[in-house]
Amino acid sequence: MRNYAIHGGFTGLAASTRVRLARNVKGYPYRNLTPGQLTEIANKVWDALSAAPAVANGLHMTDVRAGSQEAMQLIEKHMISPEFAKKGGKLIASDSGDIAIMLGEEDHIRLQVMGTGLCPKECMETAKRIADLIENRVPFDYSDQLGYLTACPSNLGTGLRVSVMLHLPVLTQSGAAERLVGWAARQGFTVRGAYGEGTRAAGGFYQISNQITLGLSEDAIVDKLITAATEVIDQEKKAREQLRSQNEDALFDRIARSAGVLRHARLLPSQEAVTCISDVLIGLQMGYLTGVSPEELIETEQMTQPALIAGAPHERDRVRAQKLREVTENLRIQG
């Protein structure tokens, strides 16, 4: 199990938080870096981090080959982007995956910090500390008028993307999640599936992230996202209570059946596992179930994605079911 150092509130409704900073090194082309130039940048970044042993001791640098099995696994751990997996590059990361620095993605440096629950401020603090360590020794491209310069204009300014993974199964079921996309756009945010742009919101998991990086301070971006995420979480809570008041027997039955599947199934395909985990998370939040933490359940769902389990589909389904039986061994129904 990964053990993120940063923890926030609303666990189970806010699965995780990610802060990402885009930076480019002065004197290098933004596109079509040669392998030698990428290695130079990677070494500069690594040397800068090594000047702070307290940070560097928990990190390691590896080469990620384009389209490799390792790349697919890193996507499912949310440590790299699909775009990075396609082209390959160098990755500096912690063992737990809470810190990951992609070198050679769209920008020279994509630094991200992840935490459990709703914790943008804490993740931002760590990301800035690491970015400052690098910038002390590696000059970034910066404009007094525009801020940090990036390959894509949408990242100009702070170069900051803050995203929160939200669990919104009841809003999804009612169709309200589709309206959420329009609401988020009007507030300056985007809503995507759990693995980024173009992915499906399996199990009702969505990412909400800022669109605007220019003209706002980092603190303002973070504060706006916290406000938006809290509003969406409140809507999901209200939708759950409304569902309880309308037909509690059906809701309880759905949760109990999914709990039974996770506790006893011997073969469990990925999509069915996500659906059952989603139902059990509802049960935990609403007091119908006890005995397992939402964090551990969400972590198991992420760590039992197809690319993270070796073997043929039948074997993956067997291993996934076994891991979920172990995690839910003490799961109990209340009432």
Automatic annotation (TrEMBL):
Keywords: ATP-binding, Kinase, Nucleotide-binding, Transferase. This is Phosphagen kinase C-terminal domain-containing protein. It holds the Pfam family ATP-gua_Ptrans. The lineage of its organism: Bacteria, Bacillati, Bacillota, Clostridia, Eubacteriales. PROSITE patterns: PHOSPHAGEN_KINASE, PHOSPHAGEN_KINASE_C. One of its GO terms (cellular component) is extracellular space. It comes from Butyricicoccus pullicaecorum 1.2. Signal peptide: none annotated. It comes from the Bacteria. One of its GO terms (molecular function) is creatine kinase activity. GO terms for biological process: phosphocreatine biosynthetic process. InterPro entries: Arg_Kinase, ATP-guanido_PTrfase, ATP-guanido_PTrfase_AS, ATP-guanido_PTrfase_cat, Gln_synth/guanido_kin_cat_dom. Residues 13-239 form the Phosphagen kinase C-terminal domain. ATP binds at residues 16-20, 78, 110, 161-165, 192-197.
